[in-house]
Amino acid sequence: AQLEALAAKDAETDVYVVTHPFEGVKIAERYRKPVIIVQPAGWAVDMPAAIRAMGLESFHAEDLDAVFGFVRVLMAKKALKRTKLLNVTNFPGRSPWGVVSGISDLDAVKERYGMDYEYVNYADFFADMDKIVADPAVQRQAGEIADLLMGHAGSNPMTREDIIHSVLFYLAATKVMAERGCNAFTVECFELCSSMEPWNRRFTPCLAHALLKDTGYPAACEGDINALLAMALEMYLSRKAVYMGNPTIHKETDILNIHHSVASLKLEGIDGPDS
Predict the structure, then answer these.
(1) Which pTM does this prediction carry?
(2) Distance CA 134, CA 178 (A)
């Protein structure tokens, strides 16, 4: 009867929190969901051992703070499973030229982590982009975003027009992502540049990655799926835009520099003030 009442109350529950091992085991058997037991006594590890033997996740938390920590991790795992990557490339299934370690088998990633994906080639993406940026409303929005970025800049050697060109790529990416049900993005750098598409439209994709992360969407440069997976988990756990770049380690001064990329506005939190 208690189980029926629990199910009726919240059929979409993802994690159950209990105080007695027997109750937790019965919930796991019936609903096949993770169960956390809150119990300061060490004997409570008995329940997670039984549930993990079923092939399900289960944890022992000594207090509610520990519960919240487990739930946060489980939420990040769920978010990764609900991530769908838009990968703009003419070379599906091949590691990018600039990332020789790059994951090329996205089906294996999907099987292991649940992250879905969709490839879009350059011809299709830029055909969509040309239609999108022809809209006067999109042009106005690009100008507003460019003004915002210039207003927040400590220094800026670029013209407003050139910034707008890169913002238009960002707006096109968000539109294509929405149409295809995607919430993560990547595009190669070297291959894209050699296509002459950025030259003809006077943009670089770097700014799009930064702006996408400001809205909570993981976006990795150079088609780097390895970095994208790490970035997605960091963003889902921290609720912050995550910086991506190349590290230089200075051992004599204990300084790590990360350079080559674009800093986002929401590095202190997606819901926080702009930097």
Answers:
(1) 0.88
(2) 18
